[in-house]
Amino acid sequence: MTKPMPREVGRLVTLGIVAVALATGVWAAEAPEDLAQAAAEAWLATADRGDAAATWEQAAKSFQAAVTKEQWQQALAGVRAPLGTVSSRKLLSRQFTDKLPGAPEGKYVVLQYETVFEHKTGVTETVVPMFDADGVWRVSGYFVR
Description:
Blueprint: H1 6-24, H2 32-48, H3 52-58, H4 61-66, H5 69-80, E1 86-97, E2 108-117, E3 123-131, E4 137-144
Antiparallel strand pairs: 1-2, 2-3, 3-4
């Protein structure tokens, strides 16, 4: 048996790394839930800064069609201002679905967070990103209770 040449060793190491990466899913595409959660949390960070106009601009097309920017700014301020600033937020659940009551068929992820605000604890925020027509996850619904 002959010893591998340095170039051959490099190829073997590279092939080994590729094989391990494929076997462990390192190069696998991100799950829809992960992408939707990242979009939701970026959107929530914008809401936390009090920039309601930007949250509307970042929202799904169906969201924008349902409510004007001015209506959304008033609604979000009405809900969030009395609560104060966010102290903490913890993901409680996330669920992928292609059907939501009262919503068109599509790809959605329903995320629920337990959020502690400056003036109120035990708040549940529900954020619903959808896979928009242009292939981007955007928030299509936001509910606080």
